[in-house]
Every structure is written in structure tokens, then in C-alpha cells.
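Purpose: get a first structural picture of the assembly so the mutagenesis plan has something to point at.
Setup: two entries, given in the order below. No constraints added.
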Amino acid sequence: MQISMTINGKEYSHDIEPRISLAQYLRENLNLTGTHIGCDTSGCGACTVTVDGAAAKACTLLAVQVDGSEITTIEGMANGNEMHPIQEAFKENHGLQCGFCTPGMVMTAADILKNNPNPTDEEIRHGLEGNFCRCTGYHNIVKSIQHAAEKINA
Amino acid sequence: MIPAKFDYIKASSVSEAIGLLEKHGDDAKLLSGGHSLIPAMKLRLSRPEVLIDIGGISGLNSISEDGNEIVIGANCTHADIVNSDRINSDLNILAQTAKHIGDIQVRNRGTIGGSLAHADPAADYPAVVLACDAKIEVEGKGGKRTIPATEFFLGIFTTALAEDEIITAIRFPKVANGNYQKFFQSASRFAVVGVAAVKDGDSVKVGVTGVSGTPYRATAVENAYSGSSDAASHAVDGIDDLMSDHFADEEYRAHLAKVMVKKALEA
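Result (C-alpha cells, whole complex):
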């Protein structure tokens, strides 16, 4: 089935099987391997991207479902060599350990801060309910998002 | 994990979707948010041969007011409900409930119509549609009909929807004094027990999810409510199919139901 969508500002068009998930399409057709697949059934959040600006789990969307949408993946966050403030904040606050969950954490953080530019720690923790960090580094992830909010609001 | 092969058809109208359901019968499934169906297909618990995507049908995602009622299109996402000013002010119990479904990403995609049609026995909305006496508006080859919430849920993953019918909207009365109390399963965020209570003067309507295979109105609680301080003790009266799993066995679940009903009555 023919689909086309805008991913990180660039137009893509492919003929794919309907059963291919958006996560697979990104990783295997477009080589955008920053979107990770963890549980593959919408529990862990490692595959989070934004679809038309709203965070979504790419493992639980068929690529054909989001035909015509605008997608941002972790690869689309930086501006050339300049990291996105959320990425910078994760780096500065040790917001990652093994790094597997990090792309999903950053993409969910973008949704949290878009809808709530000054979140409390509690609100950030609730916002991350759908993202698991198996290194259990949540304290620094919350700290990173708090710091990112300051950077964005500055 | 990759689902078994299927044909994918994007329906552009309700009548087109009904025609497709009629044509493909049991082999077809409707796809809206897909947040229950797609994981089930990946795990090969579900293998539909045809997926009819109703996610793009226009007119199924509005939230409007009709006299004393609020009409919510079946394709409205949980996030649409959380963010609706109208629902927050005139049907606050539903906004409270939607806020605690899944997580941000799930709320951005999952829909109220999909959740009700799926009829997961641990889903949150069933308690609320029951307590509010909401009506489920459906459309099929025989035309439109309205199913009262109390007649909609028939069992685990089973509803009164006919094979060729689609939920188009859910019609709620405005509710001034209602609340939803949920005991979370801590990993999945599903309800182990969820209780919705809608109070009106001396009377109350109580909907319970997660306790029986079929969500139910706790009529024994409702009958005991006025004049009794012990109404919550009747939370599982007459329920003979208490669910039991490794999160909560029957005895604990029955206890939890009473505690959550008490909280909902006192909130």
C-alpha cells in the first residue's frame, strides 16, 4: 500500500505492507534507528515519537494509519549539530544510563512541556507513566526535564 | 512482533464502514485508536483478515451539547476528553476518569468508542457510562439505535453491538456531582477495581468495573444509600462471577470493591 508522510521535515513515500508498524517503518525502511522497540506492545514507551505534535507509541500504530501525518523522531530534535534543549538537559543532568529508553523519554518530555511549560516534579512523574527506564534512573530524568523547562522558558 | 497478514481498508464514512462490515462479517475488525487491537494482533490473540480503519471518518470526533446532554463522538480520544472545557465543566467525572487511562501516549490515540466496543472488564469508562446512565448511539445496516449503558455490556469483551454495527457517539446527561475512584494495577494502569458514583440529593448511582466479568450497577448499594452509613458493604451483593487473577483474588477484590465504593460515596 502506498503511503507518504513528513518525517523530521522531509517527505517520504513508500509502498509497504499494512501490517508494518510505524516503528518498524522508521527503523527498517528509513534507517531511523533512534526510535527503539522495547516491549513492542505499547507498554514501555521506548518507541515514542510525535504524530502531528502529540506523543504516540510507534510500535502500536500501523504506518498506513498515519499516512499523511507529520512525524518527529529523536533524529529530528537537534538542529544540525545543536542539540535540542531537552537533549542538552539530559546530557547535563545524567538523565541517561544505558540510553535505551532515552529517545522515548525525550519525545514524551517534549509532549509534557508543550502542554505544561512549568510542570511540577509530580506532574513530570505522572507524565512519564508510559515510559520505563530499566536502569531505574528516574530521578535524573525528572531533573533533566525540569532543567529543560527552565532552558526553554529562559 | 508482526501481526498476521490482513487487508487494510480506510473507510471514509459510517455507511461505507457498515457496508464493509456486512461484506466481510466475522473476518473483519474495526480499527480506531488501535491501542487494544494492535497489541492483540501482534501477540496473535486476534487475527482479523480485514481491518476497517474508521479513524479518519469525519464527524465522529466532535464533542457537542444537545440540551441537557453532552454528545461525544466515538472517535474522540481520551486526550480530547481530558482537554475539553465542556466536559470538564458539565461532565467532570468523565474528564477525571479519562485522565487516569493509560499514559500520555495512549490517551493521545485511544478512543472512547473503541474502549467501549472492546469491553475490557478492567476498562475505566464502563463504570462511568453506567453510573451516568449514558446512552450508546450505534448505526448498522438496519439503521440507527440507542443502547442504554445498562444494557450494553454482556460479558468479558462482549457487548450488545450487532456484527454490522458501529458506535457513532455516546450521549451523557450533564452531571454535577460525580466522581471516579480507581485502584490501579501498578504496571498496566488498568483498574483492578474502578467505581463511579453519581449523586443527586438523597440518591446515588454506582457503576463498578474490574470486579465482575461484566461491569455492573451496584443496585444494592444504591438502594441502601439513603439512610444507611453502611451502603458500601453491599458492593458485591448478587455478583457471582468475581474475577480473580494474580493481582487480586476473589476475596481481596470483593474487599477492594467495598473500599472503593465507600471512597466514591464519601468523595
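The domain at 7-53 of chain B is CATH 3.30.43.10 (Uridine Diphospho-n-acetylenolpyruvylglucosamine Reductase; domain 2).
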